[in-house]
Amino acid sequence: TFRSSHLHVILNGDFSGCGHCKKTKPEFIEAAAKFRDDPKVEFAAVDCTIQQALCNANDVKGYPTLKYYSYYTKNTRVYNGGRTADDFVRFMLEPERLSNNKPPPAPENVSWFSDSTILHLTDRNFTQTVKKHKVMLVMFYAPWCGHCKRMKPHYIEAAKDLASQGYEQCMAMVDCTENPEVTEEYDISGFPTVKLFKNGKFVADYKGKRTPEDIKSFVLRHFSKDEL
């Protein structure tokens, strides 16, 4: 098969109507050109509007989804790195090192989400932290994600409103580019993904509007269920 004939394959699952896919495409093509003469590396793309069965088999849920496959180690993982040509090239030069080595823990005070009402979770502290809280809403994001940047101020405002009502530190975030273990455990393939946990257990995905009031109401409803 195609994958078994190459040691390293990065697969881009996309569809033609996706704006992020259109932005990623030229960078992906530029990176692929760097490996044109390398028989061990291949870049590939799949149009999920046509190859639905293939995309379903590879658990593609958001667009674009990029996955790395290694024939040699049988390693498969979602690629959550940057989407420039340089990012793709850097990853494919040392995919196994970047796939298997846990990155250093992110600092607790992260400028992307520096507000003290938001907890910053990592591979190292995620499980322990969510278990300590009756209700916790977690936003899984990538720093380069435009939708995440637009949601950020609304998410922070909701957290501040909740804190002012006595519901402190019930909202958190995870940088998926720095924390691959949590990202893989909760099958995060699109950004932002927002999940609610109660006493450490996943309860529901947040699918509502990304306004402060809607986010806050969603969290309060789950607190209210416990208080009844």
From TrEMBL:
Domain (Thioredoxin) ranges: 1-97, 98-224
UniProt entry tagged with the keyword Magnesium: no
SUPFAM superfamilies the record matches: Thioredoxin-like
Pfam family, one: Thioredoxin
UniProt superkingdom: Eukaryota
Keyword annotations: Disulfide bond, Redox-active center, Repeat, Signal
Repeat as UniProt keyword: yes
GO molecular function: protein disulfide isomerase activity
Gene3D superfamilies xrefs: Glutaredoxin (3.40.30.10)
Protein family: Belongs to the protein disulfide isomerase family.
Family matches, as NCBIfam families: pdi_dom
The protein's name: Thioredoxin domain-containing protein
